[in-house]
């Protein structure tokens, strides 16, 4: 299993970020990435550990219609969530396994550090460029921060 790790600091309180990334994930993602995700359907579970989520992509996204993910880790006490792709998405683009782990740590009242770990395996014929794996995750986090800052109540 290969691994890529990164960190990013977000200027939001940890509880607000956790709510958006974990408990409200399926409602927030289509609002944060409207040009990529049309809907996130909860297929199984309550949105926590073991839940199955179906991410439906926009019709103009090339060669990707959906991505089925399972929440394989969900620990609110340490603000950690991990999602494993079971079908579609990255698995249709050279990966044989793909799991993203997010661990949130409070830096200050209004700052949160996100530790990101992507665990993956590539198919033998796939020529993977290190660093590419995490690009989509950074786009999501940057879009999430902008969305949450612009939609504060």
The H/E string reads EHHEEEEEEH
Computed over alpha carbons, the radius of gyration is 15 Å
Mean pLDDT: 92
How would you classify the helix and strand content by structural class?
alpha+beta
Helix percentage: 10-25%
CATH superfamily: START domain
Strand order in the sheet with the most strands: 1-7-6-5-4-3-2
At the first level of CATH, what is the class?
A: Alpha Beta
Question: Within the CATH hierarchy, at the fold level, what is the topology?
Answer: Alpha-D-Glucose-1,6-Bisphosphate, Chain A, domain 4
Beta-strand content estimate: 35-45%
Shape: globular
Number of strands: 7
**Number of H/I helices:** 3
Please tell me the CATH architecture by its name.
2-Layer Sandwich
Amino- and carboxy-terminal Cα gap:
42 Å
How many domains make up the coordinates?
Answer: 1
Poorly predicted regions are: none
Largest sheet: 7 strands, antiparallel
Structure write-up:
By secondary structure, the protein is of the alpha+beta class. It has three helices and seven strands. α2 (25-32) crosses α3 (135-150). It has one domain (2-150): START domain (Alpha-D-Glucose-1,6-Bisphosphate, Chain A, domain 4, 2-Layer Sandwich). The termini are far apart. The relative contact order is 0.22. It has a seven-stranded antiparallel sheet with strand order 1-7-6-5-4-3-2. The longest helix is centred in the C-terminal third of the chain and has 16 residues, at 135-150.
């Amino acid at each position: 299993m290969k691994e890529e790790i990164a960190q990013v600091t977000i200027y939001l309180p940890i509880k607000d970020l956790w709510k958006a990334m974990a408990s409200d994930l399926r409602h927030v993602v289509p609002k944060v990435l409207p040009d990529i995700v049309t809907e996130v359907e909860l297929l199984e579970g309550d949105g926590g550990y073991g839940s199955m989520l179906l991410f439906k992509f926009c019709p103009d996204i090339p060669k990707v219609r959906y991505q089925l993910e399972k929440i394989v880790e969900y620990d609110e006490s340490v603000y950690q969530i991990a999602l494993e792709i079971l079908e579609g998405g990255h698995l249709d683009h050279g990966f044989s396994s793909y799991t993203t782990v997010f661990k949130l740590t409070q830096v200050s009242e209004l700052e949160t550090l996100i530790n990101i770990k992507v665990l993956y395996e590539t198919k033998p014929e796939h020529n993977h460029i290190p660093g590419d794996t995490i690009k989509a995750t950074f786009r999501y986090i940057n879009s999430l921060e902008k969305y949450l800052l612009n939609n504060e109540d």
